[in-house]
Amino acid sequence: MTAPEPDSIAAEAALMPYVAPAAPHGGVVLAVSGGPDSMALLHAACRAGATVPLHVATVDHGLRTASAAEASGVADTALRLGLPHRTLTWTGSKPATGLQAAARSARYDLLARYAESVGATWVLTGHTRDDQAETVLMRLLAGSGPAGLAGMRPERALTGTVRLGRPLLGLSKASLVAYCAGLRLIPIQDPSNADPRFARARLRGLLPDLAREGLSDARLCRLAARCARDDDALARAARDAYAAARRPAEAPALVRLDAPTLEALPDAILIRVIAQALDGAGGRARLERLEGLVLEALRPALATGTPLRRTLGGCLLALSRGRGLTLAPAPARKSGADGLAAGARDLLGKGSGGAYIGPECPD
């Protein structure tokens, strides 16, 4: 095979910390669909001098007639490279709406379970700088805060023992296409990537025009890096504040927080502390609903010492002079009742348009 161009060798360098680490680990599952990004991932992992076990997995969502044949083609490639391959099939009914979000969730679940079954420590994907720019743009349109605008993180936990890594996130798709061309590979082209039924595909078509106006992929990725830095700092501050505000809770309350401690917090931290309290009580709310409760109801009540009762994300929040703020399971809602209870649990604007504070959505 012909060696890749020098500027494409960056792909192999990006894989080395995962496949040839200083301290050995349980191995890597390479998520390979057969497209240029994942084929570059596969071959770069092999050429980077792997010292840990490599496993290749292809997720067949069963959404296109060609998907089974494409998975078989990846299996043949893995066999030629001397690597084990497994096709992971998404079975069961498929949703009529939010299909791509559901497919992403299923994909990571399948990959994580397969990694656990083979004892692998990492699942690696071929996401690129282009994918990051698209993700940030989608979340910008969804009205996300810093957690969403941080885009896809280079690494995150999938399970207690498996982490997701995106080693190619800093590289452009064009460089990976060139890498594949240098190795004389013929990747497949997924037609859904250009299907206008999907928001990501429509935005992908807009990016060249946006770049000409100055909103380039580089600037979108720079925005993601800045938001990730700020989000990490806010998250640390909120964790400390939540720990300082916690008080022992008595049934039926699941969480109790000290009111004076909450009152002293800046709005940005207070919103996150209430999000953590909701999570601790088994609830979750979209960002705009959470902001509405905290800024329009809780903040004024804290300032005046006024009792407050609201429902949000399946929890009843009650503020009183003697007990502070408590969170307990919300009583059953009457049919058609209004209120601040959260709706569908889409993540960071994927689906019905709500944005969340918290872990990134599973791109």
Q: What is shown here, in short?
A:
With 363 residues, this protein is α/β, with parallel strands linked by helices. 45% of the residues lie in helices and 13% in strands.
Keywords:
single chain, 363 residues, alpha/beta, Rossmann fold, Chorismate Mutase Domain, subunit A, 2 domains, six-stranded mixed β-sheet, 11 strands, 45% helix
List the helices and strands and how they pair.
Elements: H1 10-19, E1 28-31, H2 36-47, E2 54-60, H3 67-80, E3 85-89, H4 99-118, E4 122-124, H5 129-141, H6 146-149, E5 155-157, E6 163-165, H7 173-182, H8 199-212, H9 217-245, E7 246-247, E8 255-257, H10 259-263, H11 267-280, H12 287-304, E9 308-312, E10 315-320, E11 324-329
Parallel strand pairs: 1-2, 1-4, 2-3, 4-6
Antiparallel strand pairs: 5-6, 7-8, 8-11, 9-10, 10-11
